[in-house]
Amino acid sequence: MQSESQFKIIGCGNSESLSHFNNNALLACSAGNLMIDCGHTAKQALHQQGYSWSDIDAVYITHVHGDHVFGLERLAFESRFKLNTRPTLFLEPSLEVDLWEHTLKGSLGNINGERQKLTDYFDVKLISENSFRYGPHTIRSIPVDHAPDKAAFGILIDNYLFYSGDTKAIPEVINNLTFEIGFHDASIADASPVHAHFDALQAAYPSDVCKKLFLMSYEDNWQLANKDIRGVFAGLAYQGQMVALP
Ligand SMILES: [Zn+2]
């Protein structure tokens, strides 16, 4: 039977990418469309995939960097003043202060001299115990290891699909997860102190785990590294890639 739920890659480039949009995704199911991150390229990337803001019912944020949250400003304004909607925002409590006080408030916090709150734009659902439900799906928020002293999360959907968000290699985490298909942050051509590198992933994870992983958040010039992706990993994620969820 064809699954009714799909996980879709909206963008798969690193923060500098001109070719692959921000590393954002979308879960489409009976409850609606849940974006996984909403970066500064989100509106254009969604448009290329046939979506507009009116199709976005909810957003989950992995961490507070521009390629993952700056699109929220546009979603907030257009939802409130153009669409008259208030999308759901699933948020880990540890991200709340950075997201509102230090990121969005400067733009969204004042309308005609009146102070605004995050809840004036979004139906904020703070996540309890790293888990929430969306439609028929159980989504676990998985703490990952991105930048020092910065909270960051991946997600695990129904013990079937793992999506790392931005992270370095996390063998102590990933080896304790059950999943069939994964999407994992990977620098390929360049080294970064806050992202997993292709070689580090290959060294840190068992080969059967690597074979389940599509690499994402890669550089525009990844081909320069001349790595044999398909021999080691499931492949490269690409914009529009869809995974049917059971
Ligand atoms: Zn990041």
How would you summarize the topology of this molecule?
Blueprint: E1 5-9, E2 25-29, E3 32-36, H1 42-48, E4 58-60, H2 66-69, H3 71-83, E5 88-91, H4 96-108, E6 110-111, E7 114-115, E8 123-126, E9 131-134, E10 137-143, E11 153-157, E12 161-163, H5 171-174, E13 181-185, H6 198-204, H7 207-210, E14 213-216, H8 229-232, E15 235-236, E16 242-245
Parallel strand pairs: 3-4, 4-5, 5-8, 12-13, 13-14, 14-15
Antiparallel strand pairs: 1-2, 1-16, 2-3, 6-7, 9-10, 10-11, 11-12
The structure holds zinc ion.
The site of zinc ion has 4 residues, from loops.
Would you write up a description of this structure?
One of its GO terms (molecular function) is metal ion binding. It comes from Umboniibacter marinipuniceus. This is Ribonuclease BN (tRNA processing enzyme). Residues 21-208 form the Metallo-beta-lactamase domain. The chain has 246 residues and is of the alpha/beta class. It has one domain (5-245): 4-Layer Sandwich (Metallo-beta-lactamase, Chain A), CATH 3.60.15.10. Helices cover 23% and strands 26% of the residues. It has eight helices and 16 strands. The protein has helices spanning 42-48, 66-69, 71-83, 96-108, 171-174, 198-204, 207-210, 229-232; strands at 5-9, 25-29, 32-36, 58-60, 88-91, 110-111, 114-115, 123-126, 131-134, 137-143, 153-157, 161-163, 181-185, 213-216, 235-236, 242-245. Strand 11 and strand 12 form a beta hairpin. The protein starts with a strand and ends with a strand.
Spatial sequence of strands, sheet with the most strands: 8-5-4-3-2-1-16
Shape: globular
The name of the CATH topology is Metallo-beta-lactamase, Chain A
Count of domain modules:
1
Strand content: 25-35%
Mean pLDDT: 95
- Oligomeric form: single chain
Q: Quickly name the level 1 CATH class.
A: Alpha Beta
The bound ligands are: zinc ion
Taking pLDDT < 50 over at least 5 consecutive residues as the criterion, the unreliable ranges are: none
CATH architecture: 4-Layer Sandwich
Q: N-to-C SSE series?
A: EEEHEHHEHEEEEEEEHEHHEHEE
CATH homologous group name:
Ribonuclease Z/Hydroxyacylglutathione hydrolase-like
Query: Count of helices?
Result: 8
Kindly provide the radius of gyration, computed on alpha-carbon positions and rounded to a whole number of angstroms: 17 Å
CA-to-CA gap between the ends?
9 Å
Assign the structural class, choosing from mainly alpha, mainly beta, alpha/beta, alpha+beta, or little secondary structure.
Answer: alpha/beta
Number of strands: 16
- Helical residues, percent: 10-25%
Largest sheet properties: 7 strands, mixed
